[in-house]
Amino acid sequence: MSNIPETGRTPRVTVRLAVIQILVFSLLLTLGGRLWYLQIRNGDEYTAKADNNHVQQVVQPATRGAILDARGIPLADNETRLVVSASRTDLMKMPDDGEAVLTRLAGVLDMKPADVMAKVRLCDAKTPQPCWNGSPYQPIPITDEATTQQALQIRERAEEFPGISAEPTPVRRYAAPGESNAAQVLGYLSPVTDEEIKKAEDGPSPLLRSDQIGRSGLERTYDAELRGKAGVTRYEVDNLGRVIGKAKSEQAQPGSNVITSIDARVQAVAEKELALAMKEARKSFDKNTGTNYKADAGAVVVMEAKTGRVVAMASNPTYDPNAWVGGISARDYKQLTGKDSNYPLLNRAIQGQAAPGSIFKVIPTTAAVNAGYSFEGPYPCPSSYSIGGQVFKNFESAGHGDISLGQALEVSCDTVYYGLAHQQWLKDGGNNPKKDAKDWFYKTAHQFGLGKTTGIDLPGEVSGRVPDRKWKKDYWKANEKAWCKSGKKDGDYAQRIAYENCLEGMKMRAGDSVNYSIGQGDTLVTPIQMATIYAAISNGGTLYDPSVGKAIVSADGKHVQEIKPKSHGRLPMDAATRKKINEALAGVATRGTAAWRFVGWPQDKIPMHAKTGTAEVYGKQTTSWFATYTKDYTIVMTISQGGTGSGASGPAVRNIYNALYGVSADGTIDRKKALLPVPQRSLPRIDSNGTIQAQPVGRVYKAVGLGGGAPQ
Amino acid sequence: MTTPSGYPIRRYAPEPGTWSKLTARDSVVRRLDWVILLAALALSGIGAALVYSATRNRTELNQGDPYYFLVRHALNTGIGIGLAVATIWLGHRTLRGAVPILYGLSILLLLTVLTPLGSTINGAHSWIVIGGGFSVQPSEFAKITIILGMAMLLAAKVDAGDREHPDHRTVVQALGLAALPIAIVLLMPDLGSVMVMAIIILAVLLASGASNRWVAGLIGTAVIGAVLVWQLGVLDQYQIDRFAAFANPALDPAGVGYNTNQARIAIGSGGLLGKGLFHGTQTTGQFVPEQQTDFVFSVAGEELGFVGAGLIIVLLGVILWRACRIARETTELYGTVVAAGIIAWFAFQAFENIGMTLGIMPVAGLPLPFVSYGGSSMFAIWIAVGLLQSIKVQRPISA
């Protein structure tokens, strides 16, 4: 302005106007600065908060893959059930929060309205079960046992049931083909926990709250493959949780199928024969305890000798894995984990450990040869062996004169091994061990893979124990105080033992060493370890990692990933020794301790090898062990508190072989009746649409027990 | 042609045809402050878009018509512009003469609010519902009355050339004039408006050249008043909660702190360029309550980003800049004081409104000038724009 009019204003007013102007613009600048701070400086943080605010995800669970047997028969798959579920977001939009709809629904489903409403309420600290602890945007299942009738009613009268859906939904099913059970091998699923969600959050396969996770068995080992990837649809929601748009969706990817080496038919045979053998053992009298045998637990493993693949694995007591489907009831859970049922969840083939008894003797035999003793001997086999006044008896107190190591295996002569072990113990320095003690008998056991897990593809395998010097020392350190407190020189047996242990429990005594040499005492092995060892003797010396999974097949069948047998070492014996042990074990089956169980076996066509074992357990009845093999298969069976090896386990093992090879009681072979005369090499046929062709299960097997002979 | 108060317009121009009269070099139209007008129109336009964005989904508010608020906002703006034109037409000097009438009307309307005819909206008992979805907030108009009335009293003797500055007696009269409407508004209670009025009085006193003692005294009274209001429990619980939430935003994010927290998330997530008009997730999802009125700035922050929200601040700055210039350049103290009052009003109300959405001011129910939805506020604001124009236009042109 060129012409500033005369305002007549005083300087005071002019100054004050300037002050006002400065104040005004400081305020505006403050706003601008704060705006910059929120939007530019901290924009990302608020963007994340806004996303959190308005995006909710709904999960479409992926169909879990099936677990199939070697011939394509489903052991675990999904069945379609009619699941009625309620959408909480829809219900909450109704003026009565959906109460009327849920009450109507309860009428159709024959449920109590209160129960239905309890199922859709959200879990919090104050809400007791039942309640929904998943996402409130997820359809909440009311029942998975709706009948077709009920589902139709709900769908036809959709206007009466807003927010309610009745959809066929896949639910886990353990099919039990041919009445096989395989509960402990298959494992089970249970809902994911908060911790697991958190742990997997940033991993390649994040978990969703609706997920079920494999908790044991194959379901756990191959969980990631079986689970697939859930589909997620992200919805934009408003402040009341109403859906206002779809943000993003990812299709669900169904899980892969796992083909196992299990043969459902052989599995059924193994389970039924094990159960019957235990039942029969409970009928026989135990002279030592003056009662019948308890036969409280047992396991049997049928393994391909040349690959380590498990054809059947049974553990008893067992349970129905379907108990876990749809959430296990409190009663079932208590029963499954309780002492009264003797822990049926345990897979005793890999988690049960006991002293091996005489099936251990292949190890001291090898140890003796490696220590420089000749296989042929001869070695004296008196009825007893005494060390410093302590008498170690031969089993059933029989003497056999001077014999070779092979014959010692055949007749299971303990005193031969006592003598050798005692000599070695003295050589290593006796009670004052040398620094470079050879410890041949212990070293060999470790070389056979004892004292560590075999690496089977099932979770929870235990390692067993080789009671060597180091273990003795550690064990003494751990128990010294308790022993010294309870030990009494002139007390009862337990007190005397404790007293002795307190004084010299850290030492490897002569008695420990000789006891150990026949598989008694503190040695612990699992059936799967022994199966691995006997399979290695059969296959020429390779210790395979036992495996159950054979191949992983993607849902569309396009990707087949075979699981190749892996080995964790070789037996520490040369070919000649192996051959001689092999012959001796054939002798056990034909002339030795197991011969009476293989009467009429076509030994010329299917050479059978066996070793029996009866392990003594302080305060309990003896453990029955039976380890056998042909050129194709290894079968190891054990029954806790079951009696002798051949006595309790013999018939069952014989019957499994009969079924595998189609052998009749009189020894004739009927190939038509044979379930699996040679191991199943090829995978089942996979159709172009990904369906895996299942071969027929055949007739349901009936246990034969002591009756013997081929399957009827 | 004369205005009702008898000021002859032909004093400024001959009287040719209407069109040439409007476009003549020295015409009223030419002499208007177009910068203020365009900025005010731009803000109203932006406001219309933001109000529409915030309300098109709010079925519980818009009665199923997504354009309900947009149409009404446009209508309000139109009426506001009409009122501004009328104000220019009448002229601020004419209105000076009408102060007694306006003042009386204002007090009457304010008192009506205290009768059963008054309504409470959002905790403030400051409305008269007329029906048809319209309601009047007399405190908005009272702001104008206070400005005009005080300016009239304070400037009278100075403009007459009797005194250099307003004398104490005049100041007391002016404060007394302002005290009555403030007292009524305090009774409603509408604390937001009381705060704006207090700032207006302060600015008016400053600009009038009243003695420093008065200015200092007024500031002291305001502080003591605030303490008394707090101590005597005049405040309702919701107002105490608002202050508590301001002091500690993490306090009760589902309750009192919810508004400001969600508004801040909306603005912060807008970033530099915003999520695009109608694409704000916070806005579409209706996470911010009162978003078309008091929290309208959060729509701008989220959907238009730093650039768009900054533009609103800049446009307000432009208006205030020009208003300051008008205050400086007018010949009479009366015009200066009126302009200063309007500046303080706009500036403080914009600062408080935007400041509360940004979390640097406590929540008070004040609309953002031009942008917020709301008839009374829009009308009052545009009348003020008319006053500013009138002060500029009626400034005699020097030869």
From TrEMBL, chain A:
Source organism superkingdom: Bacteria
Membrane topology: Single-pass membrane protein
Domain Penicillin-binding protein transpeptidase: 298-657
Keywords: Carboxypeptidase, Cell inner membrane, Cell membrane, Cell shape, Cell wall biogenesis/degradation, Hydrolase, Membrane, Peptidoglycan synthesis, Protease, Transmembrane, Transmembrane helix
GO cellular component: plasma membrane
Gene3D superfamilies per the UniProt record, alphabetical: DD-peptidase/beta-lactamase superfamily (3.40.710.10), Penicillin-binding protein 2a (Domain 2) (3.90.1310.10)
EC numbers for this chain: 3.4.16.4
GO biological process: cell wall organization; peptidoglycan biosynthetic process; proteolysis; regulation of cell shape
First-tier enzyme category under EC: hydrolase
InterPro entries registered for this protein in UniProt: Beta-lactam/transpept, Beta-lactam/transpept-like, PBP_dimer, PBP_dimer_sf, PCN-bd_Tpept, Penicillin-binding_protein_2
Pfam families: PBP_dimer (PF03717), Transpeptidase (PF00905)
Residue ranges occupied by any Penicillin-binding protein dimerisation domain in the UniProt entry: 60-246
Location relative to the cell: Cell membrane; Membrane
Listed GO MF terms: penicillin binding; peptidoglycan L,D-transpeptidase activity; serine-type D-Ala-D-Ala carboxypeptidase activity
Membrane-spanning residues: 17-37
Entry similarity comment: Belongs to the transpeptidase family.
Protein name as catalogued: Penicillin-binding protein 2
Species per Swiss-Prot/TrEMBL record: Streptomyces palmae
TrEMBL record, chain B:
Classification via InterPro entries: Cell_cycle_FtsW-rel_CS, FtsW/RodA, RodA/MrdB
Keywords: Cell shape, Membrane, Transmembrane, Transmembrane helix
Parts of the chain that traverse the membrane: 34-55, 67-90, 102-121, 141-158, 170-188, 194-210, 215-233, 304-321, 333-351, 371-388
Enzyme class, UniProt record, top EC level: transferase
Reaction it catalyzes: [GlcNAc-(1->4)-Mur2Ac(oyl-L-Ala-gamma-D-Glu-L-Lys-D-Ala-D-Ala)](n)-di-trans,octa-cis-undecaprenyl diphosphate + beta-D-GlcNAc-(1->4)-Mur2Ac(oyl-L-Ala-gamma-D-Glu-L-Lys-D-Ala-D-Ala)-di-trans,octa-cis-undecaprenyl diphosphate = [GlcNAc-(1->4)-Mur2Ac(oyl-L-Ala-gamma-D-Glu-L-Lys-D-Ala-D-Ala)](n+1)-di-trans,octa-cis-undecaprenyl diphosphate + di-trans,octa-cis-undecaprenyl diphosphate + H(+)
GO biological process, one term: regulation of cell shape
Keyword Magnesium: no
GO cellular component: cell division site; plasma membrane
Keyword Glycoprotein: no
Pathway: Cell wall biogenesis; peptidoglycan biosynthesis
Chief place where the protein resides: membrane
Membrane topology, from the record: Multi-pass membrane protein
GO molecular function: lipid-linked peptidoglycan transporter activity; peptidoglycan glycosyltransferase activity
NCBIfam families listed in its UniProt record: rodA_shape
Protein name, entry field: peptidoglycan glycosyltransferase
Naturally occurring in which organism (per UniProt): Streptomyces palmae
Gene name of this polypeptide: rodA
